[in-house]
Write a structure and sequence with these properties.
Keywords: Cell membrane, Membrane
InterPro entries: DltD, LTA_DltD, SGNH_hydro_sf
Number of domains: 1
Family: Belongs to the DltD family.
Strand order of the largest sheet: 2-1-3-4-5
Order of helices and strands: HHHHEHEHEHHHHHHHHEHHEH
Protein name: Protein DltD
CATH superfamily: SGNH hydrolase
Shape: globular
Pathway: Cell wall biogenesis; lipoteichoic acid biosynthesis
Largest sheet: 5 strands, parallel
CATH class: Alpha Beta
CATH topology: Rossmann fold
Length: 392
């Protein structure tokens, strides 16, 4: 009787032991046999928090990573996942991000792939409402932080010790890493040596690496975006597509005067309260330091990024008393930070009052995506033109 009770425990122990003994290379080689097309628009954890999926994508030389946040998850017939495909762009979109993925999360992603980003074209969507009084919160950080990516970041030789110091100093500001022994031991030394020790011990690394590889093999069935539209935009010129997007937005925002899609507006009314967004658009936000860290990481890895800066819904933010001057100060500071660092920028914050650029309070969509898609394809084709971006 006791043997029968112990048998499942014994069997699970044997399987776990075999799992530990299997070389991680066996699993990663299996993950590379599948088509990464299946996960390019999946927005799953193996993409956001993983290493193997992103590495496989970057080594393929056929993809255009698009880093963003919740706007990437929104169903929209003008979403770059669909339009870049319809337009036969030379590179395929590969979406990295989810709601709450802000500058620091993107910087860790980039740093973990430093050895694969030399000369790579990427797009990074910046949402000015990230720049809040508190910056990235502990809860949002905990939900999106990847220990495996951090481990890779600190191990990579191509990142300077000075940049790693800045990551370490930023990471220990979060509750879950405040007492991290590795980060604190490194920061306590005068000459920071990132070749001594690791962020994770060998056992933790073994588990995380294999778990990540398994997710890259079996975790691709979820597809966040579907394109049920019967529209085909391949032969439509950009000005024609913008006109169509304008008509589409008008048709889908008949219940309000803010250009918001009807479904969102109905949800907003059900809440029966005014949005309090006074904590947003702080031009002294910690988020600016995180943006600078992202910029400097992209510089060190020698990537070729296009920063896309999107507006809020100006009409709505006026309505909820987040005044235009407050928003404008943040818009200008973001733009100045990017341009002074010689980044390629497509800034459309001057379109915050243009109808159907924003589909709700803050999310880009409809005509806004059409503007952005055109510039992403120009970037892919090496035809970036700073004259199309907002000028201050």
């Amino acid at each position: 009787m006791k043997i029968k009770l112990l048998l499942p425990l014994l069997l699970s122990g044997i399987l776990f032991g075999l799992f530990l003994l299997i070389p991680v290379e066996w699993l990663t080689s299996l993950s590379k046999q599948d088509n990464i097309n299946k996960e390019a628009i999946s927005l799953n954890d193996s993409v956001l928090k993983g290493v193997h999926s992103q590495e496989e994508m970057l080594l393929s030389k056929h993809y255009y990573p698009i880093f963003g946040s919740s706007e990437l998850e929104k169903q929209d017939i003008f979403h770059p996942a669909h339009i870049l495909k319809d337009k036969n762009a030379k590179l395929k979109p590969y979406l990295i991000g989810t709601g709450g993925s802000t500058d620091l999360i993107h910087a860790i992603n980039v740093g973990s792939q430093a050895h694969n980003l030399n000369g790579k074209k990427v797009a990074i969507i910046i949402s000015p409402q990230w720049f809040t009084d508190h910056g990235l919160t502990n809860d949002n950080f905990s939900a999106r932080f990847s220990p495996l990516q951090a481990d890779h970041l600190f191990k990579i030789k191509s990142l300077s010790p000075e940049l790693k110091d800045r990551f370490a100093k930023r990471l220990v500001q979060f509750k879950q890493l405040k007492s991290d022994p590795y980060l604190n031991s490194v920061l306590s030394k005068k000459n920071h040596q990132y070749d001594e020790g690791t962020f994770m011990n060998d056992f933790e690394n073994n588990i995380h690496e294999k778990h990540d590889a398994l997710k890259s093999i079996f975790g691709r069935e979820k597809v966040a975006l579907t394109n049920s539209s019967k529209h085909h935009f391949s032969h439509m010129k950009w000005d024609e597509m913008r006109l169509y997007a304008n008509q589409y937005g008008e048709k889908h925002s008949t219940t309000n005067n803010f250009g918001m899609n009807d479904q969102y507006w109905n949800l907003l009314k059900e809440q029966r309260k005014r949005y309090n967004r006074n904590y947003e658009f702080n031009n002294q936000s910690k988020e600016f330091d995180d943006l600078q860290l992202l910029i400097d990481t992209l510089k060190e890895v020698n990537a070729d990024p296009l920063f896309v800066v999107i507006p809020a819904n100006g009409k709505w933010y006026d309505h909820i008393n987040v005044n235009r001057e407050k928003r404008e100060a943040v818009y200008q500071k973001i733009n100045k930070m990017l341009t002074s660092n010689n980044m390629k920028v497509y800034d459309i914050t001057d379109k915050e009052y243009e109808p159907y650029v924003i589909t709700d309070a803050v999310h880009i969509g409809w005509k806004g995506w059409v503007y952005i898609n055109e510039q992403m394809i120009n970037h892919i084709n090496g035809q970036y033109d700073n004259k199309v971006s907002r000028q201050y």
